[in-house]
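Minutes, project huddle
Topic: does the predicted pose make sense with flavin mononucleotide bound?
PN asked that the exact inputs be recorded in the minutes so nobody has to dig through chat later. Recorded below.
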Amino acid sequence: MEKEKIPIHIMWHIDALMHLYPVTIVTTVNKDGIVNAAPYSLVLPFCSSPKNPQIMLNVNNAWNTAKNILETKEFVLNYPKADQLKDIVETSRFFDEGENELLHTKYTTSPASHVKPPIINECYQHIECRLNRVIKPSGLQTNFIGDILELSMDKGVYDMPRLERAKHVNPPAYLGVDEEMRHVFGKIVDITPVPVDLKVD
Ligand SMILES: Cc1cc2nc3c(=O)[nH]c(=O)nc-3n(C[C@H](O)[C@H](O)[C@H](O)COP(=O)(O)O)c2cc1C
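Predicted holo structure (tokens), as shared on screen:
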């Protein structure tokens, strides 16, 4: 196959690059305790050691999520299902600072165990985080490294066989923004287990 070089413009990571991203809804609170929620896909386990589990969340400095995490040092990653796209996108709209986006959706919340931002009940998995440090790769972006205080999910899901678990949680994939400025999502329609055979004949 012949290859071509692709120019790297602003937002190259969701414009030029075809890269499959997870979808989370991040809840935070401001210093007055007002809840903020918005979808975030630039999320990656940062330290996989069970002694020091950490996750990284990359946020544009302009967003309220960034301001709240710097102010209150806590955030929760909530993992929505693929049948919640309308509400996921609703939380991405530019509401005024101090307005709880979740009140414009069908989502409901419960208190988290260790931090002030709530968990979203209808999401299947939650990661409660306390800010450990920040990395600033550019003047526009702050990457938050969070210590994982608790990982929780819907009761019974962790005990399911992995294949059944993957189908049950039905995670959406985020594929960036199209030419008409629409968010593009996909969902997993086929899940194939491939045996791991590490021995070479
Ligand atoms: C599926 C999806 C994923 C997104 N991922 C990110 C992300 O990883 N980082 C980011 O800065 N903005 C991301 N955005 C944009 C923010 O969600 C959006 O700008 C939102 O209004 C920010 O809200 P806030 O000011 O309440 O934090 C994403 C949007 C969508 C729809």
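Observations noted during the meeting:
- The chain has a mean pLDDT of 96.
- The radius of gyration is 18 Å.
No decisions taken; revisit at the next huddle.
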